Amino acid sequence: MSGSQVRIRKALDGLxxxxxxxxxxxxxxxxxxxxxxxxxxxYPPLPGVLEAVTATAGSMNRYPDxxxxxxxxxxxxxxxxxxxxxxxxxxxxxxxxxxVQATAAExxxxxxxxxxxxAYPIVVGISGASAVQVPLAPGARHDLPAxxxxxxxxxxxxxxxxxxxxxxxxxxxDELEAFLRRVPEDVLVVVDEAYRxxxxxxxxxxxxxxxxxxxxxxxxxxxxxxxxxxxxxxxxAIAHDEVADALRKTAVPFGVSGIAQRAAVxxxxxxAELLERVEALVGERARVxxxxxxxxxxxxxxxxxxxxxxxxxxxLDFARFCEDAGLVVRPFAGEGCRVTIAEPExxxxxxxxxxxxxxx
Length: 360
Ligand SMILES: *Cc1c(COP(=O)(O)O)cnc(C)c1O
Known about the structure:
Blueprint: E1 34-35, H1 49-57, H2 69-79, E2 86-89, H3 91-103, E3 109-114, H4 119-127, E4 130-135, H5 144-149, E5 155-161, H6 173-182, E6 188-192, H7 207-213, E7 217-222, E8 235-238, H8 241-250, H9 258-268, H10 271-294, E9 306-309, H11 315-324, E10 327-328, E11 330-332, E12 336-340, H12 344-359
Parallel strand pairs: 1-10, 3-4, 3-5, 5-6, 6-7
Antiparallel strand pairs: 2-8, 7-8, 9-12, 11-12
Helix pairs in contact: 1-9, 2-9, 3-4, 3-8, 10-12
The structure holds pyridoxal-5'-phosphate (PLP).
Residues 39, 91-93, 117, 161, 165, 192, 194, 222, 224-225, 230, 235 line the site of pyridoxal-5'-phosphate.
Catalytic activity: an aromatic L-alpha-amino acid + 2-oxoglutarate = an aromatic oxo-acid + L-glutamate
Function: Aminotransferase that catalyzes the conversion of aromatic amino acids and 2-oxoglutarate into corresponding aromatic oxo acids and L-glutamate.
Pfam families: Aminotran_1_2
C-alpha cells in the first residue's frame, strides 16, 4: 500500500487520551488487591436492580426507548422539574460531550478550574474550542473570582466541578452566587455534581437550587458513583429549554441502553437503601481522613468519595509503593494521588500504607 495518511483534525493533535484506572493485579503474598483509582462504588447493585436488569435483557434485540421516557419521568418527579428539562446520555461524560458540542467550537473558549476532572481537557479539545484553565486557590478549591476574571466575549461555557475531582473540595453557595452575578447570561455554567450524594457540608452550593434561579445554569449528575452503575453508562443533565433541547439534538441516538435505563429507574426507586450505603462511605471517609490527618498528612477537606494526597514529586513513588501492596490509586505525576474511599479493608490498608510511607 502507498499514499498518504488519513487526515485527522488538528484539534486532536497532542490531546491526551482518557486513561482508565488500572485493574488491580493480584500481588505476591495473596492479599486481595483493590482498585481504588476510579471512584467507583464498592457495593454491588442495589437489591432488586440486578433482577430487573436481567428481566430486561431478554429484549436486547430491540432498540431502547430513544428519549429514555421512563427514566426522564422518574428524574423529573424525583427532582421536581419539568421532564423537558431532563436530558440523559451515556454517562455524565457523554452528556458533557453533548453540552460542549452544543455550545463551543473553534474560536470559542471554555473556562474551568485546574486541576479538575481529567475528562475536561479531552472533551473540550475534541471540540476545537480553547480551554482556559484557572488554577485552584489555596486549599485546592475553585478560585471562582479568578474564573470570573477569565471570562471574555469568546467564552461560551464554564465548568464548575463540585465536589472537585480530584481534590474533593466543594464550592460554597455564596461563592457561586457571587460568581453567577459576574457571568453573562448567554454563557452556560455547568455544575458538575457527580459526587453530590456524598456532600454533607450545609454551605455547599446545590446545583439544582441555582438551576431553578438561573436560566444559564445546567446541572450534571450521574448514576456511576453513589448509585453504583458505572458499568452501564448513564448520566443526565437538568437544564432550561434551549439547553435541554440542544442536548437531545447532540445525543448519540439510542446511546443509553434499555438495561441502563431500567437499572437507573429501579435504583432511583431504592433511595433508602442507596442512602444507607452512601452514609457508610461518608463514615469511612471521615475515618480515613482523621487517621491520615493524625499521621501528619495535610488533606483538603473532601466532600466526595475520595481523598487527595498532594505528594508533589513523590506522587509516582507513592503510587508504586501502594501498588506493590495491592492498592491501585490514581497518580497525577508531579501533583498528587487521588484515592477512592472503598470497602473498610481497602481503607484500612490505605491507612496502614500511608503511615508506613510517612515513617520511612
Ligand atoms: C466520575 C465523574 C463523572 C461521571 O462519569 P460518568 O460518565 O457518568 O461515569 C463526571 N464528572 C466528574 C467530575 C467525575 O468525577
